[in-house]
Amino acid sequence: MNVNMQVYYDRHIPFQIILVIVGALLASCNPDRTTKVTVSANLEWQSTGVQLVAGQSVTISASGQMNLHPGVAPDTGPGGRDGDIDCPISGVNPDLCPIANQPYGMLVGRLGESETFAIGTGTTYTAQSNGVLFLIANDHEGAFDGNTGHYEVDIIVGP
Asked: Is the pLDDT of residue 48 over 90?
């Protein structure tokens, strides 16, 4: 190694190492991460891209408006049509709803392919298994095509 290369190495490489260490320390000081997603009324289960592991907590809050039956029903927020009408309506198989006997339009979460839970306007949930977080409005399977609107969702994953 020539003298010029040695001087460069002595002056610059330690500074780069310090930057890496500082970056790692800053990242460890704020382990939470926030993700913002839009849940469309006319789509069924929508991936958030957020991966959770068993035991990890997630705080979810939502706002916005959807209409699950335009021209027939009123708009609803992520809490759903509480006290008005639940999914399913009379005579419809309850297995067609993401969560049966809960308000139409309520925001619902699912971890992986099986762990389903109510969110509404907001909740903190502890994952029971590993998986990607999916979101949906509580409506009958196959009945999403005519729905309008969306919910804006904030997802904060804890350690």
From this structure: yes
pTM: 0.77
Using a 10 angstrom Cβ sphere, with 0-12 exposed, 13-18 middle and 19 or more buried, the burial of residue 151 is buried
Q: Within this chain, do residues 95 and 137 fall inside the same structural domain, yes or no?
A: yes
Q: Contact 98/115 with Cβ under 8 angstroms?
A: no
Looking up tokens 């919910």 gives 151
- Number of domains comprising the chain: 2
Looking at the fold, whether 139 and 75 belong to one and the same domain comes out as yes
* φ/ψ bin of 19: left (φ > 0), alpha (ψ from -120 to 50), beta (otherwise): alpha
pLDDT digits (tens, 9 = 90+) for 52-95: 999 999 999 999 999 998 988 889 999 998 666 788 776 677 78
Q: Are residues 101 and 131 in the same domain?
A: yes
Closest CA to 40 of 64, 74, 69: 64
pLDDT tens-digit profile of 123-142? Answer: 999 999 999 999 999 999 98
The dihedrals phi and psi of 92, each to the nearest 5 degrees, come to -100, 140
